[in-house]
Specification:
By secondary structure, the protein is of the alpha/beta class. It is built from 16 helices and 16 strands. The chain folds into three domains: 64 residues, Winged helix-like DNA-binding domain superfamily/Winged helix DNA-binding domain (Arc Repressor Mutant, subunit A); 133 residues, Aspartate Aminotransferase, domain 1 (Alpha-Beta Complex), CATH 3.90.1150; 235 residues, 3-Layer(aba) Sandwich (Aspartate Aminotransferase, domain 2), CATH 3.40.640.10. α8 crosses α9 and α14 crosses α16. It is globular and about 75 Å long. Keywords: DNA-binding, Pyridoxal phosphate, Transcription, Transcription regulation.
Length: 472
């Protein structure tokens, strides 16, 4: 067995070997969590995490109220050159060329676009937004012309703070800083907390923009195992914190891209408690948080009593990417991030802030979000269903809790980078899973955008993708 595995990983490997050797056959029920915890003399939580890893790897199927069963079709054996499932050592990030290569086709309007994660403009009241912008430049001409306060326009930050009215720990208006999109907030946070050569813990898979930023800034990455339903493994994260391996943790807790999970309130509280206990700050990317389909999805920041969470968000996904309007709530790191913002670009443009303040004041944004959530829930469900119908047997495409992306697992170790090339030649843009990790993982996954209605053209494109995948 490989050395330096976490406890649950070692048990997972032993069960995986038993399944591979046929000691537990396809469809056969595995021993219960409590039975295995007694057998291996470990906690129930350790066995639960073990099952989560085996489920994510495709070896088992968890059936509510029935138990845990060996999957009908087992994944192909890992290639010998693959590294451990989740590396315990920090790694360098060098994905910029790959990411640029896979992003560039989005600019070609003739393609069927499943690559970049964006809701369709058909779901956005673009005319209403632009009309409000014109009114702002007419009725607030001098404010539109001038610099705004470095913290942001008062009307804008006031409306943002009111969004936290139901947080256990509300965000004060004076804590907020307006940014040029969510990524500027993340960059400012990384610059405030870390230096070149420092290590940052991230989910795996995680948003490729996160990895790109870390690579450009010469930070190293420690990838933490992440479950498609529960989110980042808090046990593994705690071990990394305990060993002093990381200076910060960068993650999403709501409608995570690309897995689509939303962490429970209890797990968010535990995440914040770990940050406080080990004095490791959390950078929270909540850009898809407003799109969570059902229920109350507060961010981890809502439970942050000591200022250990730097909260980053924007309206790029939920309303209009061209606005490039975001914000950051830096907590105890406010002064340093304010200094970095001022020397970087002084302030954020006035017009988008005044416009968004008016859209929030009028109730438009709240109504829009309700409309958007309903459509995205329907579109992701319909697209997921068609993928499973058209792709080879053994393909996985689970319904996300929010957002508009699907994390599609290809059976038999098929390489999504080959699928990218073949699909692009036929006028279809997708995004391969390999760039959602700093290491050689997720190459048999692809991320598909379901932000567009399932039109006849998109339906045919999915069928074609399925045909291509079957040939790989």
């Amino acid at each position: 067995m490989a050395q330096h595995l976490y406890l649950y990983e070692g048990i997972s490997e032993r069960l995986r070997c038993h399944i591979r050797q046929g000691n537990y056959r396809s469809g056969e029920r595995l021993p219960s969590v409590r039975s295995l915890s007694r057998l291996f003399n470990v906690s129930v939580n350790t066995i639960t995490q073990c099952f989560r890893q085996l489920e994510a790897d495709g070896f088992i199927e968890v059936r509510p109220r029935s138990g845990v069963f060996v999957a009908d079709a087992l994944p192909a054996p890992a290639r010998p050159d693959n590294i451990a499932h989740f590396p315990l050592l920090p790694v360098e990030v060098s994905l910029s060329e790959d990411i640029l290569h896979f992003m560039e086709p989005h600019a070609r309007s003739e393609l069927v676009r499943f690559g970049i994660a964006l809701p369709s403009p058909q779901l956005i009241a673009v005319d209403r937004i632009l009309k409000t912008m014109r009114e702002v430049t007419r009725t607030h001409a001098l404010e539109s012309w001038d610099y705004t306060h470095p913290h942001g326009h008062e009307r804008f930050t006031h409306q943002l703070s009111r969004r936290s009215i139901n947080y256990p720990v509300p965000i004060d208006q004076h804590e907020l800083l307006a940014t040029n999109g969510c990524m500027e907030g993340i960059e400012l946070a990384l610059r405030a907390l870390t230096q070149p050569g420092d290590t940052v813990a991230v989910e795996t898979p995680t948003y490729y923009g996160t990895l790109l930023a870390l690579g450009v800034m010469r930070r190293r990455v420690l990838e933490i195992p992440t479950h498609y339903r529960d989110g980042i493994c808090l046990y593994s994260l705690e071990q990394a914190f305990k060993r002093g391996q990381v200076k910060a943790c960068l993650l999403s807790t709501n409608a995570q891209n690309p897995l689509g999970f939303t962490m429970s309130a209890e797990r968010k509280r535990r995440l914040v408690a770990l940050a406080v206990k080990f004095d490791v700050p959390i950078i929270e990317n909540d850009i898809w948080g407003d799109t969570v389909f059902t229920g109350e999805a507060l961010p981890a920041k809502a439970y942050d009593e000591t200022g250990m969470v730097i909260y980053c968000n924007s309206f790029s996904k939920a309303l209009m990417p061209g606005l490039r309007l975001g914000w950051v709530a830096p907590g105890r790191y406010h002064r340093r991030i304010r200094e970095l913002k001022q020397i970087s670009n002084i302030t954020t443009a006035s017009v988008p802030q005044i416009m968004m303040a008016r859209l929030m004041e009028s109730g438009f944004y709240t109504q829009h979000i309700q409309h958007l959530r309903g459509h995205l829930a329907t579109q992701t469900e319909q697209t997921s269903k068609q993928i499973l119908e058209c792709f080879p047997a053994g393909t996985t495409a689970r319904q996300p809790t929010g957002g508009c992306v699907l994390w599609v697992g290809l059976p038999g170790g098929r390489d999504a980078r080959q699928l990218f090339d073949l699909a692009l030649a036929e006028g279809i843009h997708v995004f391969p899973g390999s760039v959602f990790s700093a290491g050689p993982r997720h190459s048999d996954f692809l991320r598909l955008n379901a932000g567009n209605p399932l039109s006849e053209q998109n339906s045919r494109a999915i069928q074609r993708l399925g045909d291509i995948a079957a040939r790989l």
